[in-house]
Each structure stands twice: as C-alpha cells, then as structure tokens.
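Why do we bother with holo predictions? Because pocket geometry can differ from the apo form. Keep that in mind while you read this record for manganese (II) ion.
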Amino acid sequence: MTFEQLWRDLDPIGRSASSGGYFRQPFGSAERECHAWFLEQCATRGLEVESDGNGNTIGWWRAASAGGPGVLTGSHLDSVLDGGAYDGPLGVVSSFAAIDHLRDRGFVPARPIGIGAFVEEEGSRFGLACLGSRLMTGATTPEQARELRDRAGVPLLDAMSAAGLEPELGTGHLLENVGVFVELHVEQGRDLVDRGAAVGVASEIWPHGRYRFDFTGEANHAGTTRMEDRHDPMLTYAMTALAANKQARLSGERATFGRIEAVPNGTNAVPSRVTAWLDARCATDDSLAALMAEIERMGHDRAGLDGTVLAVTAESVSGAVHFDDDLARRLATGHAVGDWPIIPTQAGHDAGVLSAAGIPTAMLFVRNPTGVSHSPAEFAETADCLVGVEALATTLERLAGEGAAG
Ligand code: HGY
Ligand code: MN
Ligand code: MN
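The structure, written out:
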C-alpha cells in the first residue's frame, strides 16, 4: 500500500471539525480507532502482534530465516489536545510504507523487524509524557502509574479497562527481543529547513520537565475587596509566568505555562487557588536545574508580596539523552545524495526513553516547512514524507539485512 493511501485512512480519525486539529487521547474512542487501524495494518501484512499490559503493541515481520535481536521502528498514535496530524502517526504510517517498499523490492530481513505503537506518548490525558515506554522500561513503576488520574479524576487502570484492555502494568516482555530502535518523526522545529534537507538524524534530546505550580490565596469579592486588601493567586501566577518567560529568554532556553486551572473559576471572585503547569527545557541538566531554581525563587518572592503561598512539584523530569553516536553516523552517511544532517531536538520522544534504558536508539526527522507542531497547523510536504519512507526503508535494510552488526 502507498504512503498516501495509508495516510488517507488514518487522517479523519479524531479530527475536530472546527479547528482541524486532532483529539486522540489515550484509551478514548479516536485513539482506539487508530489502534484498531494499526492492528488491521499488521494483519494485512501478516505481522505477528504482541501487546503488553500497558497498552503498547508491536507487529513483527519475522521472515522464515530471520533470527537474533529485532530491529524496532514505529512511534505513537495519540496526540496532544488539538494537535497536528504528523506528530506520532507519521512514524507509524512511514513504518508500514517502508516495510511495503522493502517487500516490493524483494528484501528478506535477516533480523525480525517490528513496528511499535507506544501508548500515551504525549501525556495529554494522564499528565506523564511517554507513559507507555516509561512503564515498559521500568522508568515509571506500576505503583506510580496507578496513582495517575485524568482531568475528570478517572484512574489510569479504569480508563484502560473501560477501553476493553486488561491492564497489567510493568515492564513485561515486549522489549526482550529488541536490539535497536529507530523512530521516524516529523521535525518540530526548522533546523532541516535551514539546512535545506528533507531528512535528518537526531543527535540528542534536551533535558526537560513538567512542574506543577500551586498558588494558594484567599477567595473574595471582585467588586468590594480593595485592590490592596487582596491575596490573589492569579496575580502571583501571572507575575511568575512573566518571570519564567524572561528568565528562559535571558538564558536561551524554554519555559512555557501551557495549562492552568483556577478555583472556583468565577468571573466575579478573586480565586482561592490557581494551579499552573510549567514545561521547561534546557540544553543541559545543570541549566535546567538552574532555570527552575530561578523561576521558583521569583515565584516565591512574588508570593511574599501578594500574601499568597506557592508550592512547586516536579511531576516528571527527563535528563539529557545522547543518542548512540556510531549508530547515528552509520545511518546518516553513505547516501548517494550526501549525508543526512545530525541535529538535536528539544522535543521528548519514546526513543529517548528507550535510549535511556540502554537500547541502541536513533531517530530520523522529516522536514516541517514551518516548524509548527502541537498545533493543527503542523505540516510536512508529501514529497518529504516519501523521502522519509525511503530513508526509513534504507535504514531498516542496513540494520536488518545480512551481516547487520549487533
Ligand atoms: O512534549 C514533547 O516534547 C513531545 O512532543 N512529546
Ligand atoms: Mn508531541
Ligand atoms: Mn511525538
């Protein structure tokens, strides 16, 4: 099947008629439809499907003569709230298309080739990014995951059961036969545009974290309470958000408050509490720690002025990931068109989690003409997607062909 056919099938699932963006939250109906599509594609190709009790699935192509550690590719099918079409699905669709290319040209893999679909990569429902890969590598324990609730208070296990799964959280056996992982992903910046390249290879992922800021104040009347008598947590939040932005700019790094809840959330009341989530990303682990210390200090100072209280909780922090240099060079070089650039990214990926767990891992990026991502405007030209499919096919040939090392 062609890339375009595969893409068309998946394209309408979970798309909002008003924004054109995607709502494919884990264990919800649209994401489950994508998962059913994934299983159908595995069945069409005779791939052997294996699942774990976390909601992750791999379809294996095991040629009769194939043996040894497997070569895993794939990505994720869930989206952020109102997300783009490409973040995640491009890697899964390209994987099926790449296998079809390899079969069309008569390639017989000496190693098993798997296509994976990792669950809740974005953390859009349960707050923890890469939940599926974290559980399967042990980076998150079943005990920690059992505490997770979605915004409506539904526990993870209940959401999984409601979707017809039989949860059994933990490392399981899915990665036992994986020797190497390669995730293809739409680029989420403009590095490849600047370099005039359709595809690239990842060198590293910046350290990043999600932090919950609880600002507590005093509920009161919006009209009768004099401005100087208030203990307004919204004001402390607003000043902290400005300070975070300024601090990240000064240090050339990233700080974003993208989610906020106010209690009781009434127009004519000073709120009693504001909770806001900060996403921060820096070039090094030390600079992330320093940025967060400075933002917290400024938030506490402001709370002192406002008569409010600030508590900061690190909900998840992912250290720097340096992908396997030799593997990256091996994939990036030796092409007729010239070497593929090797570039860093500020976005998190399941590839980062598997790499941190000791699995030799690489990523391929496909050019994104605007760099926009986590938005309905996310885009990649079909011509570049096709170059990506070919790049992935070449990569799988190198890693799973006769004489593949590892
Ligand atoms: O949030 C991220 O960096 C990613 O796109 N999951
Ligand atoms: Mn994403
Ligand atoms: Mn992604």
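Residues 80, 87, 122, 374 surround manganese (II) ion (ligand 2) (CB under 6 Å).
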